[in-house]
Hints:
Elements: H1 7-24, H2 35-41, H3 58-69
Amino acid sequence: xxxxxxxxxxxxxxxxxxxxxxxxxxxxxxxxxxxxxxxxxxxxxxxxxxxxxxxxxxxxxxxxxxxxxxxxxx
Length: 74
């Protein structure tokens, strides 16, 4: 079943995510051993991104990764 995204809500959340991460954190890093996986994210049709603990920013980091890696096509 294809995903039907509400682009208004998605784009608004992505904008908010970029803004709050820039305000609350100095940066978002990726370990060098993860770089090959980062490159593959843009070429896969679907992926699951999960956090190792439950915090308010886990969903924001997942959205940030999806957008910056190219997994989330706008």
